[in-house]
Write a structure and sequence with these properties.
Alkaline Phosphatase, subunit A; 7-stranded mixed sheet; two-stranded antiparallel ribbon; about 30% helix; globular
Length: about 450
């Protein structure tokens, strides 16, 4: 009697390696037997968390559905999520009290970012004595860091100053960061897709060693070229389904790498980067690249916690891809001017369109037990509702994904006015197994999600 063929198993943290490069693998079927006995195969469905910050609020009348429940309508701004609407919930009525003045006067944009994930009231200061709170993403990162190579990733599209005053007496630290490791320590974000790519797929030392990075650039060597021998050896040992998964993953990495290394007239020396940013530059392409990097990071299980600022608080970047030369922040002070509102609705919809592309991408990536959208919990929201009024209640907020089976999306939930956003964050912490019983000004977990 023939001996049954035993399927080869590999550790889920296996890297493909080559000279100067190391690339994590996506989750493959053959990794399941290699999991420790104490870890169930469904561990690959552990939730990934992403928090996406939108600057300058929304045109709320074209954001908020008229109907509640599962049969909610999609207003103009939300139309792009139609293909994934069953995996998206619209949450109305949430507020961040920490963003309000509380006697500190103007500075709502800085407070909107500083309180976005902390739900704390930032101390009004332009000096070194900044003080906010610990952000929910960093609490999740601490709880989940043992599972992945990177505890968290912090991304953005605008750098900005790290010191000085950016908004009405508030430090730039508030305007330019949403992740806070401690009340006095914001976590700096990465704004260049090239650097994020290197961090994910290059040798870890390469990201810190400028000379090694430059040497590889001069040799015109692709990350995939460097690990090709190891990849070929692994591929021969995989089953048909896993070979297809590996090929799809590496094709996506190759495509993104080509985008990031393709010469572009929009590229400029670092000294001129700010002027490019002010003109809008290739901003939408970089936004798409960042979202793709997020998808690949989740697919390879490099991290399970990501924050992404689509713009700094009060961002005044022009959106020339929409033929809108006006600054975003300037337009948000619309004063009910029809021309400004018409441009705002286009900008708001464009951001949702990029989100929808990201969600559809996650939905198409299979992991054990489902797909990445089913295993993710993604918050897409702003810290200001209407940019003209600077209000911090009735915030525009989406909760996307199924949270590894712990979320039940596809509805429009309208909560009582001033329901703390912290209730949502506490719910996500509890879903991740965090022992937290209260988060900032939470009054309990958020019902109905």
């Amino acid at each position: 009697m023939a001996t049954p063929i035993r399927r080869r198993s590999i550790d889920r943290r296996t890297f493909l390696r080559g000279t100067g490069a190391a690339m994590a693998l996506p989750f493959l079927d053959c990794m399941v037997p290699a999991l420790p006995r104490s870890i169930d195969a469904s561990e690959s469905m552990s939730a990934r968390f992403a928090f996406i910050f939108v600057p300058n609020g929304m045109k709320m009348d074209e954001w908020t559905p008229r109907r509640r429940g599962r049969n909610f309508d999609l207003p103009f701004i939300l139309e792009p999520i139609n293909k994934v609407r069953k995996s998206v919930s619209v949450l109305s009525g949430l507020a961040i009290d920490g963003g309000r003045p509380h006697g500190d006067g103007p500075g709502d944009h800085a407070r909107a970012a500083g309180s976005f994930l902390t739900c704390a009231h930032p101390k009004k200061t332009g000096g070194a004595d900044i003080f906010a709170g610990v952000s929910v993403d960093q609490k999740l990162a601490q709880a989940l860091k043992q599972n992945t190579r990177l505890a968290s990733m912090e991304l953005g599209l605008e750098g900005g100053r790290r010191a000085g005053i950016c908004d009405s007496g508030y430090s730039c630290a508030y305007s330019n960061n949403i992740a806070w490791r401690s009340p006095t320590t914001p976590v700096a974000k990465e704004t260049r897709p090239e650097d994020v790519f290197t961090r994910l797929f290059g040798d870890p030392n390469d990201a810190r060693d400028a000379s090694a990075k430059e040497k590889r650039r001069l040799l015109h060597r692709s990350v995939l070229d460097l690990i090709s021998a190891d990849a070929r050896d692994l591929r021969r040992k995989l089953g048909r389904a896993d070979r297809a998964k590996l090929d799809e993953y590496m094709d996506a990495v190759r495509d993104l790498e080509r985008q990031l290394t393709r010469p572009s007239s929009a590229q400029s020396p670092i000294a001129g980067a700010e002027s490019v940013l002010e003109r809008g530059g290739d901003r939408m392409a970089r936004m798409g690249q960042m979202f793709e990097l997020m998808a690949l990071a989740f697919q390879a299980d490099q991290t399970r916690v990501i924050s992404f600022m689509l713009g700094n608080a009060g961002s005044n970047v022009a959106h020339r891809s929409l033929d809108i030369p006006d600054g975003h922040h300037d337009l948000s002070h619309h004063g009910n001017n029809p021309a400004k509102l018409a441009k705002l609705r286009q900008i708001n919809r464009l951001y949702v369109k990029h989100l929808a592309t990201f969600l559809e991408r996650l939905q198409g990536i299979e992991v054990a037990g489902g797909n990445l959208l089913e295993s993710s919990a993604i918050v897409f929201a702003a810290g200001i509702s209407d940019g003209d009024h600077h209000n911090h209640d009735h915030l525009p907020a989406l909760l996307c994904g199924h949270g590894a089976g712990k979320l039940h999306p596809g509805t429009h939930r309208k909560y009582q006015r001033n329901t703390p956003m912290a209730n949502l964050y506490l719910s996500l912490l509890k879903n991740a197994g965090h022992p937290e019983s209260i988060f900032a000004d939470s009054q309990g977990t958020l019902t109905g999600i």
